[in-house]
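Hi support team,

I'm filing this because I wasn't sure whether my run with succinic acid finished correctly. The job status page said complete, but I'd like someone to confirm that the output block is well-formed before I use it downstream. Pasting the exact inputs I used:
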Amino acid sequence: MTIEIRRLGEMAGAEILGLDFNHPLDDETVDTINRAFLDHHVVCIRDQDISIERYLEVAAVFGELQPQKIPQFAHPETDLISVLSPNLNRESDDPKSKLIVRGTFWHTDHSYHRVPVKATLLHAVTVPSKGGDTRFLNMHAAYEALPDDMKQRIEGLRSVHCLTGRRNFAGRKRRTDDEVDGPTAAHPLVRIHDDSGRRAIYMNPNRMNGIEGWSDADSDELLDALNAHCFDEAFEYRHQWKPHDLLIWDNRCLMHAASDDYHEPRLMHRALLRGSVPVGTGGANNSQGKAA
Ligand code: SIN
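And here is everything the job wrote out:
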């Protein structure tokens, strides 16, 4: 089978053409996809009209599948898939009135666990004719573009990630320290990529309570400055979906955000691959968590 790889963006993204996952995957093809994943961080395998069973078989070739625990998004047949589909209220005069899309703010998946997920897979079952792109920020590039004094300032720091944290930018009320809830984990702010050894800023802006050992005010000042630096189109790749795209992205060095700019059905099946404890510039021990 001849496969073709084409770069999609300067910051991330490559598409792979000429594959059909309905056929068995050979080792060479798996190596090619893994290489593209490391080189481009977001890999889109086009034209994969596959069943849920085959999707799970293929995903398991790339890592250990992790159950997904939010009941309202669960796939009826398996907890290894979650279903992303916004509520579209067709009866309403205001087409946006009931559009509820998950993940519209910059994030990386499951950072509040001691072992965050390595990669996310999203299979496009139905895509809108216009809009609904997924946006990605290359956090290696964001780190490398920091001024030297900021690189020194964040070296060795750990940030505390929390499922429902104190800092929240998505329009919901910010929580107080007493209200913080759910799994919590401290991770290096500068993360060394397990496979490439490259540094990245490891952030999840809505789910970070602050810098370990720092006051809220000092933490906010630093994290706000890092957000302002990272939320920049210069680091962005924007994926425009086609039906049956299968996307795999690397949560260790990217943030991503869904777009809510569409008014037609959009149905995605999400799978997650287990990761590793994030390693920082001080070594493996500088990441701790209270809950996995
Ligand atoms: C996600 O944030 O995991 C979903 C992204 C999307 O639906 O575009």
